[in-house]
Amino acid sequence: MADYYSEKKYEGPETIVVAMDIGTTQSAVSFAHFSPGRVVQSKMLTLWPGCSTTVDKIPSIVSYRNGIVRACGAEALQDLEEQQDNVAYRFKSHMHPSLISQPNPLESELPPFPAGVTIEQVYADMMRYLMDNTQKSFEKSSPKGGDIWARVRDTIVIVLVTPNTWDIREQSRLRLAAIRASLVTEENAGHLLQFVAESEASVLYALVNHPGDWLQRNTVFAVVDCGGSTVDTAVYRCVSTNPISLNETCPSECVQTGGIVVNCEVTKMLNNKLQGSVFNDQEIIVSMVNAFEREVKPRFDGTQDRYYLNFGASIDNDPSVGIERGRIALSNEDLKPAFDVVTDMVCKNCSEVLPGQKAEYVLLVGGFGDSPYVQKVLSEKLRAYHIELLTVEDYGRKAVVEGAIIGHIKQFVAARAANATFGGCVRPVYDKKLHRDRKHLVQLYPDGKKRIDGAFHVWIEKGAILQGNFAHKLPYHVAWDAAKTSKNELIRGLETVEIEVFAWEGSDIPTWCKDEYGSTLKGMRLICTLSANLSALAGSLQIVTGHRGKKIYRVEYDVCVYFGGTQLRAKLQWHQGSTLHESEVKVMPYVFRV
Length: 594
Hints:
Layout: E1 5-9, E2 15-22, E3 26-34, E4 39-44, E5 58-59, E6 61-65, E7 68-72, H1 77-82, E8 87-89, H2 119-141, H3 145-152, E9 157-162, H4 168-180, H5 189-192, E10 193-197, H6 198-209, E11 220-226, E12 231-241, E13 244-248, E14 253-255, H7 259-273, H8 282-296, E15 306-310, E16 323-324, E17 327-331, H9 332-357, E18 361-365, H10 372-383, E19 388-391, H11 398-410, E20 413-417, E21 421-426, E22 443-444, E23 450-451, E24 455-460, E25 465-467, E26 471-481, H12 487-495, E27 497-504, E28 524-532, E29 543-545, E30 551-562, E31 569-576, E32 579-584, E33 586-589
Parallel strand pairs: 2-9, 9-10, 11-18, 13-20, 18-19
Antiparallel strand pairs: 1-4, 2-3, 3-4, 3-5, 6-7, 6-8, 11-12, 12-13, 12-14, 15-17, 16-17, 20-25, 21-24, 21-27, 22-23, 26-30, 27-28, 28-33, 29-30, 30-31, 31-32
Helix pairs in contact: 2-3, 2-4, 6-11, 7-8, 7-9, 9-10
């Protein structure tokens, strides 16, 4: 694929943008130098240590010795073969289990991390490796590249490509890894580290490199990104074609399945098929699966009677299980069920989402989207709904990072759909109709009103279409009994003002986000806490008369939460006299541990 060039000269401040896709099995990098007055050109990183030829993707593998990184990418392949316990591979799948409501078919087969190694460390080591090689490539391929890199190093923008349903918790873990790898700092990560969904990056690449008459104003289409461990689906409406502008029409979907699942199913099939044979050996089966990955998987279409896996030498024979001269013969019936485990889930997801959105086309992308069998099965399924399947023939893993750079340049996607109902945990005034079941928990608060804890205050409903700059302004207040609160206590109380943010993926709107004991209710997801320091207000606070004449200190402020982009941001606004003050709110994600 040719490098991508922007249509107009860049007029902003000089910087470099580096897009990284750390996939389940493969990783790739694309980068671009944004220089004022020049056309922006993106480039794929194709020179990698341990590779004899130019390649645009490397294995997502990190090997360790005593907890210290030893090798990454292709250079770690030998360690994977000889010392698998010291190698982190398929580590992206460890992020999935508690994200998505469906069962994870890979969860029971996730390879463990090397002793003493955490997922943040693995990501940090992989990111550092990708960044170091990006720097070397940029300095070699760009005139005065070393000078340019040194000049803009502290303003380099990092764009990470992630599955559709990875939200603030997963972004937080990647942010910690990026800081640990010295890609960004804790102070500048908020604006130099960005995220883009896999399906969005895919569609941006496809629309730029493979435009067609099918895309017209008001055309509704879906992009289905079939990767190694996830299949992401997003639906868009074309708002305009010149320039291209897209709005997401509904929450994006993510199904935990993909090319790795097929390999796992083939492994199970071989274990069963070789029962009682001398070839029922773990190393031999690994060799067979590797041969399947190289030779059969990319071309399997379900039409041939026999497929052959070359795994051994000419002396390797066992006709009873189809092994002759170092190769095993597998029938269509042997292999088809392994693919169907994935295609059944993809087709089910498309059937549930696309007809209701009146989609006319499905753009199939992703590494596993190249599979002839996946293309055939999905095309037949969609035909029943009068939906046409489109494929991108030269699509590879590299296109995702290329799409991420294109998205940074062109900003095609103008609006996204909220993938859940978001809200805060509040203490509302007691309403006997809404809160009757917790009447016994009502308390009288300093403002003189009866209030109840643990209620869910909806900010954004699931499916709401949010523009890129959409902000939700939330009025809040805190109060203290003036007769019982000293100035020092007031300052301490204002130093940490917190609001918990929850996500609800159901279609209904629950009354509560916590139970009577303060624990998060089932189905409700605590995603982060917004925290701000308002202690500067303490000196200007006046005693006011509250409910029933009670004297209180009362602080009123607005929390502005920005939902329209690819990551949650928030600001705090308050008035001191007639002056409006504003500050960033610290977003503290609720991070689960693996």
